[in-house]
Each structure stands twice: as structure tokens, then as C-alpha cells.
């Protein structure tokens, strides 16, 4: 999935999403260029450790109300700022697109409730752009509204839904996942699959879309076990050093979800 598809997915689903990249200014420019097609009111609010809620609150209020606010370095903001942002975002229709310099596998210093409303995390490399998989269907505001209206009509047959739930259950019970998965992730997963289907020209969900959606969506939704002595199998006599080695290999959320989708077979 390239950056254009990632932004398109968030727009169709009307969800907040996070971009991690290696060059923030270039990424912000790319996102702004993508959003120009849709006649949306967009602003950019650079966040530092000194930023206060009062510095950005006008972007969420009339008459300067925006459709989308890009927030470079949101993770640098204080807990108080992020908490205020959360309280105001959930009461408005504004979409936020935080941008961070964090690399794959690292945790972000984001307020927990703020993380809960961010749909997924997309990794974008300005140095190694991902080739576009297919012609971009999101060419203008009219097409965006058309795809949004088609969301409810996208079909998920019983076998595909069972496949999705199997992935959720396997993730929840994975030895390296702490606290399972929130129930709302099921709805997030379904919506993500539907958005990806529409972007590829389908009005139904197929197994490969479920697999790819899990790889893109679920890593941001899990908490990883970070203390070896809490690993469950130690209660039954597992070797501490072997468990320690496994924990070191499975310290990346992406690796955990890759293992999940490799072990959950799609419907035949």
C-alpha cells in the first residue's frame, strides 16, 4: 500500500491515522498534495514539547474549522496537550493525521486514549517509495463520496468473517500479546477490509485483503510483553533462556502479526 492508498483508506473510513516516516517535511508535503484533490480544508500544526492546547485549539473551532489537521511530531506533545486533543477530537468531525519519525517496531509516546482513536499506523519511506499497486480510484471529491456511500454494500460472506475472527482470536491469545485486543478492533478490522476492497474495485472482501488488512491494522492495536518473567509458559517449566530468546525475536508488533496470519489459514 502506497501513501496515496493509505490516505484514501482513512478518508473513505473517516478515521484518524498515523504516518511514521524518515522525513517529516517531505511526507507532509506529499499528504497535502494528495488531499488537494478532495476540496478539503487542511491545516498543519507542528507540535513541540512547548506546544499548548491554546496554540492549536482554534483549528477545531468555527470559523477556522478544518476537515483534516496534520500534526507533525504529535508524540512530542505533553500528556496534557494530547489529553485535550483527545477530548476535542471525539466531539468533532475533524480528522487528525499525526506524523512521526519513529521507525518500524518502536513504540510511540502517545496518550493511551489518543492511540485508541487512531485507526492504524502507516510506515512511509521517502527514500524507498512503494510502487503504486493499481490505478488510483480516488481522483476527486465526487469519487470519494461515491466510495463512502458504497461501504455498507461491501459484502463479507460467512467464511471470510470467520477467517477475520480467527485472526482476531489468535492475536488476542498470542503468548507475546498483553491484554488481548479491545472489542472495537473487530469493527475497525471489518471497516478496513471494506475500504481496501473498494480501492481495488471489489464490492466484496477476499482472503488476501483480510490478510493484508491484518498486517497493516493490527500491529498498532496490540501491547507487547516486555518482561520475560511474565511470559505464560514459564509457569509450566519452560527454560528461561529459551523464553528470553523468543521474547527478543518477538519484540516487534509487525513480526507478531506476521506470525499470526501465517498460522491462521484462509478459507478454501
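-> sequence recovered:
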Amino acid at each position: 500500500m502506497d501513501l496515496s492508498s493509505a490516505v484514501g483508506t482513512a478518508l473513505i473510513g473517516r478515521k484518524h491515522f498515523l504516518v511514521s516516516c524518515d522525513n517529516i517535511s517531505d511526507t507532509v508535503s506529499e499528504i497535502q498534495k494528495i488531499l488537494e484533490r478532495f476540496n478539503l480544508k487542511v491545516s498543519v500544526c507542528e507540535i513541540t514539547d512547548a506546544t499548548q492546547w491554546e496554540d492549536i485549539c482554534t483549528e477545531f473551532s468555527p470559523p477556522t474549522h478544518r476537515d483534516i489537521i496534520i500534526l507533525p511530531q504529535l508524540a512530542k506533545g505533553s500528556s496534557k496537550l494530547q489529553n485535550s486533543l483527545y477530548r476535542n477530537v471525539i466531539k468533532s468531525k475533524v480528522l487528525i493525521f499525526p506524523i512521526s519519525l519513529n521507525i518500524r517496531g518502536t513504540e510511540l509516546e502517545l496518550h493511551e486514549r489518543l492511540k485508541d482513536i487512531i485507526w492504524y499506523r502507516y510506515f512511509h519511506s521517502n527514500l524507498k517509495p512503494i510502487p503504486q499497486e493499481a490505478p488510483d480510484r480516488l481522483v476527486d471529491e465526487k469519487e470519494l463520496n461515491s466510495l463512502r456511500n458504497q461501504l455498507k454494500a461491501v459484502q463479507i460472506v460467512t467464511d471470510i468473517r470467520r477467517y477475520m475472527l480467527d485472526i482476531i482470536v489468535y492475536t488476542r491469545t498470542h503468548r507475546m500479546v498483553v491484554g488481548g485486543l479491545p472489542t472495537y478492533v473487530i469493527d475497525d478490522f471489518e471497516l478496513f477490509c471494506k475500504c481496501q476492497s473498494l480501492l481495488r474495485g471489489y464490492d466484496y472482501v477476499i482472503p488476501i485483503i483480510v490478510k493484508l488488512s491484518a498486517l497493516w491494522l493490527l500491529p498498532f492495536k496490540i501491547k507487547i510483553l516486555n518482561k520475560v518473567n511474565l511470559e505464560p509458559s514459564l509457569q509450566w517449566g519452560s527454560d528461561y533462556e529459551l523464553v528470553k530468546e523468543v521474547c527478543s525475536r518477538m519484540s516487534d508488533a509487525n513480526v507478531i502479526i506476521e506470525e499470526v496470519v501465517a498460522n491462521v489459514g484462509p478459507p478454501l
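The chain has two domains: 3-138, 154-263.
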